[in-house]
Every structure is written in structure tokens, then in C-alpha cells.
Amino acid sequence: MEEQQIRQESYATEISQLSDLKNYIGKELGVSEWTTISQNQIDTFARTTDDNQWIHVNPALAKKHSPYKKPIAHGFLILSLASKFCYETVKLMDVGMGVNYGLDKVRFMNATPVGSLVRARVSLISTEDVTGGLRYKMKLVFELKGQEKPACVAEFIALAYVDTSKKNKKSIPTNNSQNLDELKSKSVLFKKEGDIAIVTLNRPEKYNAVNDDLVEGINESIAKVQKDDNIRAMVITGAGKGFCSGADMNTFGNITPDEGRTYLTNTYGPLMRNLTTLKKPIIAAINGTAAGVGASIALACDFRVMSESSGLLYAFINIGLGPDGGASWLLARQVGYSRALQIAVEGKKIKGDECYRLGLANKLVDENAIVSTAIDWAHQIAKLPTLAVGITKEDIFHAMDNDLQSTIAYEAERQTAAFASHDLVEGVSAFLQKRKPKFIGK
User: Fold this and answer.
1) Pairing assessment for the beta strands 28-31 and 117-130 based on DSSP bridges
2) What's the rounded Cα separation, in Å, for the pair 369 and 308?
3) Which CATH number among 3.20.20.370, 3.10.129.10, 3.40.50.300, 3.60.130.10 corresponds to the domain 13-162?
4) Rg of the chain over CA atoms, in angstroms?
5) Can you tell me the distance from the alpha carbon of 143 to that of 120, in angstroms, rounded to the nearest whole number?
6) Rounded to whole angstroms, how far apart are CA atoms 22 and 11?
7) Which pLDDT belongs to residue 180?
């Protein structure tokens, strides 16, 4: 197999024509997302297969006798994830039917204790033409997070038949002639349109559920906007039918309380800080629903455009969780304690018209005009003195948690930057000359 740069983030290869698959022989096709091996998975597997070995199903006996001090997953449970991992990493766009032949040359190299994070690195070994399709063999390396040795290495054999009636489709169409800027993340699209940036959460097949790659893509986009003086406003929207469905359960998994606390703090904390401290305005164009941490992302933006069919859903309570990602702080400061508690505890979708009445949405428009309205509005805001807009954003955030005298002092401190700006001189000159100012954002 030829040498390739080893990629650590999850990604998939999209192949528009099945016949093109043979061009990838000897190459890596993708890396699946991490999935957590839970006790429930182990118990379900044991019931299904009648494999009730204590080392797999009995935490107390496993803790006493197993060298791992907790249950381990049966090897066949790990292998049962092969189809899932292959589906995540290889996207054959013109296939009408696929058949899994099974696994071959399986080698178990490491045990998988309960709570382990497992993923597969998938590469193509060979292909063989068959009537109407292709027979192909892939290599799966089942990696364990934090372990040098993988859990298992196996070959996966499959057949795929072409659907000649299918047309090739892109995951997200765009009607803009400008090229998309490349991000390291494959779950977020970044496009510069004049003086604004348009950021699209691009996991439409999962309603843009939040995983590590998507978080990294948003953070990377914010960094690009911050560094580029020509970008003076930002729009965030979602590809497909929804803005964001919340945390991807395959990424979050069944982790321990300590792991959960660390993940929430280290992943969502920096994301929300980056959104709320960007010194340029952010508009969320909420197509469909923003749920769970997706609602946190929407409320961390400065403005929101919705339609009557859009919605915010604090879905945490529906799966036995409290809010996270700053959801409680963001909601309470928008609607007050009692209303925020009701929304969070009832776990019902708040439709766009009610969001507008509550002040959670700034503009309520037709469903087909959400993104275009947000873009037009962003271009309008981009014509304002961007430095002053950033100062105003900081001032209001400070005011929410401080008294009047502290806020006056804070405003005076921040105002020093505006006093030295080009836009102040331009604004005063335009006022005296009775003309419209031309701000440059500096």
C-alpha cells in the first residue's frame, strides 16, 4: 500500500461512480467517528448470541477476576460494527443495491474494555468487476483511543450493483459562483462573499449533529473571520432540513461522568467562548430546528433569523440530561428565569413565531427566505463601523452580569479604542458634512 499522510480526524470518501472505486486500491478511504462500547451494547449482544461469559456481562465478577477490572466486549461485537464503519467512510453515490459478503482474515490484537472508544480506519485492498457492479475488499483497522495496538484487524468483502437511474448529487448544493474556502474540517463549509462569511454546518444526513469535527470547523471558521479585516459579519446556517440536531450520540456515547464533564468543559466551553467573544456580529439563519447544543450555538450568535416552521428545542430533558454548552445561561438571559426553566423542563419545540414574541428571534420571515434574509442583513451590518460593533457587543455582555457603575467604567475603557479609530473621524466628518458615512471597520 502506498504511503499516505495519516489523518486523525473522521472523514469519508464520496465516489460518484462505482467504477471509480478501483482508482482507490491501496489507499485509505476514510476514518469513522469514535463510538463508545457500553455495558448495554455488551448485554444486548450477549442476549442475542447466548454468549453469557461473565467477563463480558457481569461487572462485579469482571472487576474481581478480569485483568481489566471491568467487562470486555466480545470480539464478534467489535466485528459487528464493520458495516456501520464502512457505511460512514465510503459513500458510493450511484449504488442501487449492496451485499455484504462478510469478514475474512480476522486478527484480534487487543481487548476492548467497557467504556472504550473504538473507530475504524478503512482502506481498499482490491476490486473485481462483476455483471452490473463491483466486488471489492476493504481492510478495517479497529483502533482503540489511547492504545497503540488496535482491537482488531480484518478484511471486509462486499458487492455493489449500480443503479443506472440515479443521478449524482452533491451533499449540499450552492447557487453562488464563488468557490468555497478549504477548511481542515469536513463537516463545515466556509464561503467568503464580499464583506461577510457564510458558514454552513454540513452533516445533512445527520441533521448537522455536533461532533468533534463540526466543532473544530466552527472554531476554524471563527478564527478565519477574526483574522480577515475584510470580513465584517458572519452568517451560520445548516445544510439540509435542519440547523442542528444537537450532540451526535455516536460521538458522545455512553461515557463516564468524569469523561462527560471533561468533554463538555473542553469542547463546548471554547466553542461558546469563541462565538460570544468574536468582535464581529454573527447571524444564525435557523432553517428547521436548533436542538440541544444546537440551540446553544444558535443562542450564542448575536442575532437570529427564523421562520414560523423553525424552532428551538431544549431536548436535553428528553434523554435525562440537564442543559449543557451554556444553554441555561444563554436562555435565561434572553427570557428570564421562570420562562427559561419552563422551556428547559418541558422539552418542547418552541416554534419560530413564539421565539419571535419571546425575543429569541430577531426576524421572522418566509421559510424560503431565511438564509437570504440573514445574508442581506449581514451585508448591511458589515457596512457599520465594525470596531464599534465589537465594542458594543463586549459592553452588553459585561452589563448582563455587572452593576451600573462597573459598566460605566468598562464602557469608558473599551471606548478608548474607538476614540483612536478611523471610523470615528469618518463618522464625525460625515455628520458635520451632512452626508452618509463610509466606514471601513477600523
Assistant:
1) antiparallel
2) 12
3) 3.10.129.10
4) 25
5) 6
6) 19
7) 62
If one counts every other C-beta atom within 10 angstroms of the C-beta of residue 217, the result is: 25
- With CA atoms as reference, report the closest residue to 290 among 281, 299, 279: 299
Q: What are the percentages of helix, strand and coil residues in the chain, rounded to 5?
A: 40, 25, 35
Tell me the three cell numbers of residue 154: 480484518
DSSP letter string over 387-417? HHHHHHHHHHHHHTTS-HHHHHHHHHHHHHH
CA dihedral 266, 271, 277, 283 (to 10 degrees): -170
> Could you tell me the three cell numbers for 306?
427564523
How far apart CA 1 and CA 26 sit, in angstroms, is: 5
Amino acid at 293: V
Strand order across the beta sheet in which 188-193 lies: 188-193, 196-201, 233-238, 282-285, 303-306, 363-364
- Kindly report the CATH number that applies to the domain delimited by 386-432: 1.10.12
pLDDT digits (tens, 9 = 90+) for 361-378: 999 999 999 999 999 999
DSSP letters of 194-260? TTEEEEEE--GGGTT-B-HHHHHHHHHHHHHHHH-TT--EEEEEESTT-SB--B-HHHH-S--HHHH
**Helices (DSSP H) in 80-228: which residue ranges?**
82-89, 212-227
Give the model confidence (pLDDT) of 108-128 as tens digits.
999 899 889 999 999 999 999
Residues in the chain, total: 442
269 pLDDT above the threshold of 70: yes
Find, among 309, 312, 302, 313, the residue nearest to 370 by Cα.
309
What pLDDT was estimated at residue 410? 85
Q: How many CB atoms lie within 10 A of CB 385?
A: 22
Fold classification of 188-382 (topology level): 2-enoyl-CoA Hydratase; Chain A, domain 1 (3.90.226)
Contacts of 191 (CB under 8 A, 6+ apart): 174, 176, 178, 180, 181, 197, 198, 199, 200
- Pair 241, 287: CB distance under 8 Å: yes
Query: How far apart (Å, rounded) are the C-alpha atoms in residues 20 and 10?
Result: 22
Each residue of 384-403: pLDDT tens digit? 999 899 899 888 988 888 88
